[in-house]
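Tutorial, part two.
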Amino acid sequence: MITQFKKAILKSTKAKNLFEIEKIQDLWSGYGRIVRCELEGASIKTVVVKHVQLPKKSSHIRSTDISHNRKLKSYKVETAWYKQWSKYCDNTCRVPHCLLIDTQGDEVLMVLEDLDAAGFPERRSFVTWKELELCLSWLANFHATFIGKKPENLWRTGTYWHLSTRPDELNVLTDIPLKQAAVAIDQKLQQTSFKTFVHGDAKLANFCFSPNGNHVAMVDFQYVGGGCGMKDVAYFLGSCLNEDECEKMQSQCLDYYFKILKESLVSRSKDRDITAIEEEWRELYPVAWTDFHRFMKGWSPGNWKTNTYSERLAREVIKNLNRTGQNEP
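Running the prediction step on this input gives:
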């Protein structure tokens, strides 16, 4: 870590010294790393440091100018999120507190609260129904918090897979009906009457759990931006349920999500259009699922997520678009 960054961390935390004690992970495509640091002489014992070092060229095999620029913007978005928006998240949609954002040339430093130390040290590779409820509740409260807000300095369209940022994957897509419907699918999601902020990468790996399994927090806000809340819900469920579970539990999961969304909107005095929001978003759930399915079939056609459940939803969505004339060339 360069000296200027170290000095900035010590000043912001009032620590006498700091020591890197653990590398949590490298950032995608060699764009830096996330480490845990111990602070000496400060009231805070540990912090998580996200150190972004922007390479001139990515080493990742899929790297293109488009993907490089997308990553550059994603880190700008994440710093804007912590500077401008994260303060509006309460304990119902817990996120790490930001202690410092600093830049030196092409390097960016984010010093964040250590969620492990704050009571969220556990991660899951699969979930119980109770844990699934916790994550859906986090998403519902997050969406209720930001419904109607304009995503200033964030992605205009949240998520890392939306159509305008993924021309390469669309070009190589061999599913012709899905390829032809891609624009109509994107437009249907864009034209939702009720937009909120979506996390944009709401996979199970980004949820942090308390040991008793009663609380959850969320990390990684590189792709937060505007959109329909169903994009997060569909992506999350696809990250932790297999195709049979998705089929059997779809109604149960959506019912629970909308129950919490209604309660959260009421508590935040945003309850005027609750019924209309639910009606529109329920209809958009398979559309949001199909939108991600379109990306996956272009990016990694053999991935386990391109399953029969996804294929069935995609065929139904395309059929409905054709029937209503929304998929006209």
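Residues 58-63 have pLDDT under 50 and may be disordered. In part three we will examine how such features are distributed along the chain.
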